[in-house]
Amino acid sequence: MNTPANLKYTKEHEWIRVEGDVAYVGITDYAQSELGEIVFVEVETIGETLDSGEVFGTVEAVKTVSELFLPVSAEILEFNAELEDKPELVNEDPYGTGWMVKIAVKDSSELDALMSPEEYEKLIG
User: Fold this and answer.
1) Would the pTM of this model clear 0.70, i.e. be above it?
2) 53 φ, ψ (degrees, to nearest 5)
3) Do β-strands 55-61 and 74-79 pair in parallel, antiparallel, or remain unpaired?
4) CB atoms inside a 10 Å sphere around CB 58
5) Which domains does the chain have, with CATH numbers?
6) In a 3-state reduction of DSSP, which class is residue 98?
7) Hey, is 118 helix, strand or coil?
8) If exposure means fewest CB atoms within 10 Å of the residue's CB, which of 10, 11, 47, 82 is most exposed?
9) What per-residue confidence (pLDDT) applies to 21?
10) pLDDT in tens, 82-122
11) 12 Rama sector, left if φ>0, alpha if ψ -120 to 50, beta otherwise
12) What's the pLDDT at 19?
């Protein structure tokens, strides 16, 4: 499994990459491989401010639908519009073109509670 060192991770298999005042969120390589072929990503929370752990959307695979949880309290700024026509980008490049939302982090100290790549690798075994 690919677990980039520049990201933080959640027990629910989301990742977050902070870039200045904004951050990007998606699901991990492990999560996409467990879900299988992703056919739809839905995010209806654009413009909303959500708390850490709240559901910001869903990802639909051929056989299941899974909720997406926000790693930190944030405002949802943008949905990756490319996923509307190409949800398979989540399978092909979960940490790059397969990102799901761009957010404005409300309290950066919440990032400290997230898992390091090493901790996440232990979680998934």
Assistant:
1) yes
2) 90, -10
3) unpaired
4) 14
5) 9-107 (2.40.50.100)
6) coil
7) helix
8) 47
9) 86
10) 999 999 999 999 999 999 999 999 999 999 999 999 999 99
11) alpha
12) 96
